[in-house]
Amino acid sequence: MSVGVARPAQSSPAGGPRIGGMGGGGRPTGESARDPGTTLRRLFGYMRRFKGRIGLVAGCVLVSTALGLLGPILLGRAIDRFIAQGDLDGLARTVSVLLVVYGTAFLSTMAQSLLMVEIAQRFISVLRSLIFEHIQRLSLADHNQRRTGDLMSRVGNDTETINQTLSNGLIEFVSNVLLLLGSLVFMVVLNWQLGLGALLLLPTMLYITGQVTVRSRRAFRRVQRRLGVMNATIEESVTNFREIKAFNREEAAQEEFAEASQAYRDVATHAEVILAILGPMFSTMSVITLGALALFGGWLAINGHVQVGIMATFIIYIRNFFRPLRGLAMLYNQLQSSIAGAERIFEVLDTVPSVTDRPDAIPLPRVEGAVEFDHVHFAYDPGTPVLHDINLQVEPGQTVALVGPTGAGKTTIVSLLSRFLDVTEGAIRVDGMDLRDIKQADWRRQLGVVLQDTYLFSGTVKDNIRFGNPDAVDAEIVEAARVANADWFIRRLPSGYDSTVSERGHNFSEGQRQLIAIARAVLAQPRVLILDEATSSVDTRTEVQLQSALLDLIQHRTAFVIAHRLNTIRNADVVLFVLDGRIVERGSHEELMDLHGHYHDLYTSQRRRLRVEHA
């Protein structure tokens, strides 16, 4: 399996780190994520697996809404039949029925809320898993086109926004719709004149609601987007804390965060202002309408056209009519926020990985380690090539050293070999099989990678070494550490192999992290090994220990080594000097020294510098 954790930097056409842009990464596909109807249908499509529980919720909603609508009828009947007649027994019976009705409605409401919370939590757990699994399938280029904090915001914040709507808003939304329609029907049945008066106001209120919510939808999209940017700024600041301190950039980091925070605050305030308009607007309209209808109903009652109990029932229904209408407007805005979050989630899920297994990909048996680069070209973007016509034939067990200036394309070559990226033209073959024809997982199980920026996970030293082979037993872990010359310092730790590793391994030196990474590679027993600047971050004494471990590791394996310290690769079978994406020199150390070209100049300059440093 691949044991490298840190992501190699992509090279730009000039070979430098690549920031932003599509970068040859995956592309969104499928249905438009900007259509709210499509987004909602797709979101609810994921909920079909919970249709049994959703059916129970729907039943509870119908029961609670029906009982809520029955209450005013019973109250009006009590006024006209029992209070007006002084029938206390009848009134007591009606009150008893009302207690049962509202008690049952309460229990039904409680049941539907608990069920919906469970459904929402299960659904969000599934959705987060889908996003996380899809992110794991994306290629290196796909990852590099997005900021880490923005991805974290989509997995965390956007899913939580949907969770809040499902847990608290969806039932209320459906209940309000049923209550509004039921109240309207009962009002028309009770008195068509009063019902018609309430109905005439509905189109006006719906029009106003529509105008406000169209604006709120755009506003909440901006809120979710700005939240992602702010989270990305925080993540980068925390991740690069050491560099910020080292270069005295605290003030610049604070200014960048303040700018992102201000932008988020502005769009969030704008969205909340739009949301706040609806509350007072509906309150005012409902009070005016209630007053007008009460005045008209009172006139009807005084003139004997309607009974007092029916008028009381009607007033309750008017309140039941406006309360859900206002609630629907408020919930609609909450729904807009969830739609915006779902759109961002589907944008990730719709990204087609730029490196995928073909449908007919074949399993890869144990390889001997022969590697061939056949007229390989690569470009992150069309028209801006990074590698030009790379040709290379490596026999099993050979060691190939890649040298050259920073940004020449060395890391891109090994990224293509790892199949973190796919070639633009040409082919890379292992034991005669095109890498694109075999399953990625099978290839990476036989590939070991030790990167310059070694990443350690939170956990124990043992866990981090076992990352190279999850099935390894403790004795194999200790032996791997011994081969990697890591056993001696691990045993000196307070808890040995069970010592805690902090986030990113910050409680270990760079050299110790490198030794643990090499132990991972030893444990994985790869057939092909990639060492990307594996000794460039350690002191001379540690480098000697590393070189001893690496010689044992490389033995009988095909190895690709990138190193700035050219004295560490003198024994390589083939040395390739890479410049501007081309192999400009190749041969053994001695052959390239005799050539008096780029390699000779770089090697002699390093030797002079070392002599000066040790003088």
Question: Could you give a quick summary of the protein structure above?
Answer:
The chain is α/β, with parallel strands linked by helices and 615 residues long.
Tell me what the structure shows.
This protein is of the alpha/beta class. It has a domain at 40-352: ABC transporter transmembrane region fold (Up-down Bundle). It has 18 helices and 14 strands. The chain has helices spanning 36-45, 51-83, 88-137, 140-144, 148-190, 192-239, 241-246, 250-302, 308-349, 410-418, 440-444, 461-466, 474-483, 487-490, 510-524, 540-554, 589-595, 598-613, and strands spanning 27-28, 351-352, 371-381, 384-394, 399-403, 425-430, 433-434, 447-450, 459-460, 500-501, 528-532, 558-562, 574-579, 582-587. Strands 8-11-12-5-13-14 form a six-stranded mixed β-sheet, with helices on both faces. Strands 4-3-6-7 form a four-stranded antiparallel β-sheet, with helices on one face. Strands 1-2 form a two-stranded antiparallel sheet. Helix 3 packs antiparallel against helix 5 (148-190) and helix 15 (510-524) packs parallel to helix 16 (540-554). The protein is elongated, with a radius of gyration of 35 Å. The two termini are 44 Å apart.
What name goes with the CATH superfamily of the domain at 40-352? ABC transporter type 1, transmembrane domain
Total strands: 14
Largest sheet, in brief, is:
6 strands, mixed
Instruction: Write down the oligomeric state.
Output: single chain
From the N-terminal CA to the C-terminal CA, the straight-line distance is 44 Å
Helix content: 55-70%
* Estimated share of beta-strand residues: 5-15%
Q: Which fold does the CATH topology of the domain at 40-352 refer to?
A: ABC transporter transmembrane region fold
Poorly predicted ranges: 1-33
| Mean residue pLDDT | 80
Determine the structural class based on helices, strands and strand pairing: alpha/beta
Q: From the alpha-carbon coordinates, what is the Rg to the nearest angstrom?
A: 35 Å
Instruction: Provide the CATH top-level class of the domain at 40-352.
Output: Mainly Alpha
Shape: elongated
Number of helices: 18
CATH-level-2 architecture of the domain at 40-352: Up-down Bundle
Question: Biggest sheet: strands side by side, in what order?
Answer: 8-11-12-5-13-14
